[in-house]
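Lab channel / #folding
Pinned by the channel admin:
"Please post every new chain as: sequence first, then the structure tokens as a reply. Keep commentary short and put observations after the output so the thread stays searchable."

First post following the new format, from NK:
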Amino acid sequence: MITLVVGTNRPNSNTAKIARSIVDIYAEHGAPLEVLDLADLPADLFLPTSYAEKPASFQPFVDRILASDGLVIVTPEYNGGVPGVLKYFIDMLPFPESFESRAVSFVGVAAGQWGALRPVEQLQAIFGYRNALIHPVRVFIAGVHDVLDEEGRLVDAGLKRRLAGQARSFTAFVDAVKSLRSR
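Reply from TO:
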């Protein structure tokens, strides 16, 4: 199973809109994604006491990450970096088992011209530190307002092709990683 993480908790975000399109692309290729939206994180996770003892309400999120064979992280760029809520989510997951030898792929979403290059590179460093297996095909979505229609659907054909190529190669990457882990 592959899990897509919507890397922001901002309501009605462009990241969530792009994520819906990615889910459709994976489904078209016979690889359904489970979506984990950070907008659904429980409020009690943000209490200072959560560092010492995770609230029970967070356990379903932990379980979903641990059950995943691969993760597609869709991240916006906030102030030149990773959204704080995404970094906090990563920090709250168990170490080292959450990402150890787990396949991870990245999609960056930004209004600007670089398509969230900086947060994707920051996440690659973080996930590398956590011993994840990083898929080399990244997709950067620049000018996100220009690639979505009024209903929030992805309309850029070239971008759809790039995301489909990433989906195909990441699915194969996840299968290869699974076979190595099962040995």
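NK: The chain has a mean pLDDT of 95.
TO: also worth noting, DSSP finds six helices and six strands in the chain.
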